[in-house]
């Protein structure tokens, strides 16, 4: 195959993959402006009424607030735990450190429905279902693998000579971490925080098992809404969530160079 034909074939394959990935999003975006009371494609009329209905629906507003609180709490805990664990694993090598690191990322290997059932059986006797504490702890299990991986990458590329120089000049452990180590690994910490927040905010399976009448994150509220009324407001909310995720990524990329920290 000639060079021109090879490049054309590669571009065709890439174009088909992008078309496959983007077509559902484009369809949802178009449907979100429909005036019907049910989901249909193509729409016959267009209106911003579905977006207005999203903001007027109380269950969506409350679910958004709950999701933000849970995501913020689990992200803060995940970044704190992951930073401490990554420092221990990279600065203090010991026998079995690889096993410990594998333990931290092991939730990625377990299907979410299995993990959700296990957490439900664990949290129910402790009274941690249908509450913020149980959801934050459950989402923490999912967030730690993402946070610890990005922070570990930053630590592996950080120059330890700067830390040694700070200690030689009289800085204690906390001062060394605050003034030297943390600025070096800040991109990885930010990347881990972003990924943890988005994973927690979008999590539906575990939230469905652990939520109840009083505490329903937005994904659970959306699923319950679809069971009774699947109208264009569902597509409108989906579009808003996509734009929200993109906005966070673009903002942090502009502020901290997130793309470089994920390499």
From TrEMBL:
Chain ranges of the ABC transmembrane type-1 domain = 64-252
Q: Where in the cell is it found?
A: Cell inner membrane; Cell membrane
Mention any Pfam family matching this sequence. Answer: BPD_transp_1
Q: What is its main location?
A: membrane
Q: Which UniProt keywords apply?
A: Cell inner membrane, Cell membrane, Membrane, Transmembrane, Transmembrane helix, Transport
Segments passing through the bilayer:
12-33, 64-90, 102-125, 131-148, 188-214, 234-252
Among InterPro entries, the record links this protein to: MetI-like (IPR000515), MetI-like_sf (IPR035906)
The record, for SUPFAM superfamilies, names: MetI-like
- Membrane topology qualifier: Multi-pass membrane protein
Matches recorded under CDD domains: TM_PBP2
Which PANTHER family does the entry link to?
INNER MEMBRANE ABC TRANSPORTER PERMEASE PROTEIN YDCV
Family, per entry: Belongs to the binding-protein-dependent transport system permease family.
What is this protein's name?
ABC transporter permease
Native organism taxonomy: Bacteria, Bacillati, Actinomycetota, Actinomycetes, Streptosporangiales
